[in-house]
Amino acid sequence: MMTGQHGSQPIQHQFNPYSDNGGTLLGIAGEDFAILASDTRQSVDYSINTRLSHKIKAISPSLTAEFKAQNPKMIGTKNSILFGTNGFSADGDALTRQFEENWKWYVHDQNKSAMSMQSAARNVQHLLYGKRFFPYYVHTIICGLDEEGKGCLYSFDPVGSYEREQCRVGGAGASLIMPFLDNQVNFKNQYIPGTNSTERRKVDYLSLDECLKLVKDAFTSVTERHITVGDGLEIFIIDKNGVRCEYHDLKKD
Predict the structure, then answer these.
(1) Distances, alpha carbon 43 to alpha carbons 119, 222, 226, 228, in Å
(2) Spatial CA neighbour of 156 closest among 144, 173, 172, 138
(3) Which GO terms describe its biological process (predicted)?
């Protein structure tokens, strides 16, 4: 009688409902603006599903005809919330839709024109924590302006823990870009020249142009080192004038 080899294990069939679709999400909060950017590649392993996947949505009050006429390039008002997810694309879409529905109900029930960033962060926390036993497999970042008109960014883990930060990166390129932002945005390990590394550089806000240059350089660099990042770069910018979006090409290979 034939017998199996010593040490062989029975085949186990496991169901894995999750998939990592790659990509990178980056947010920076400035003095009077906020930026949320992501690449547009969606992939699985070594296959590219699409080269134009939108990972960020501007959730905004309805735009009036007057606003559109005065701001033809704006896609949202200053009360908008930039909502970005990265990881499992299907979960990201589901979470975005759920938050947008909650946002609409909040505005209707409270008779307000928009939701504050603090309320939005707490709402996202409830959505994520409510799914903690079967969590959304995403890294979430929301950006906007706070009550004082300052740039505001909250980042979340998959089960709802969140924190207000100056900058944050999520996704495939996080380990490559975050140390760069820690140095350039948070001014970590930066010292005033001529002090023999004894006097730290004062932490200050970067200008919008400086932040945009950092974002473009960061994504251009990470596409050279990570195969799941590339194709296109969408940069959403929110300030006192509203929300606008820029698109830039990245490597296609």
Answers:
(1) 33, 16, 12, 6
(2) 138
(3) proteasomal ubiquitin-independent protein catabolic process; proteasome-mediated ubiquitin-dependent protein catabolic process
Question: What type of residue is 22?
Answer: G
Tell how strand 34-39 and strand 232-239 pair up: antiparallel
Other CB atoms within a 10 A radius of the CB of residue 37 amount to 30
Residue 94 pLDDT more than 80?
A: yes
Average pLDDT value for the chain: 93
Domains along the chain?
Answer: 24-172+208-249 (3.60.20.10)
- What's the per-residue H, E or C state across the chain? CCCCCCCCCCCCCCCCCCCCCCCEEEEEECCCCEEEEEECCEEECCEEEECCCCCEEEECCCCCHHHHHHCCCCCECCCCEEEEEEECHHHHHHHHHHHHHHHHHHHHHHCCCCCCHHHHHHHHHHHHHCCCCCCCCEEEEEEEECCCCCEEEEEECCCCCEEECCEEEEECCHHHHHHHHHHHCCCCCCECCCCCCCCECCCCCCCHHHHHHHHHHHHHHHCCCCCCCCCEEEEEEEECCEEEEEEEECCCC
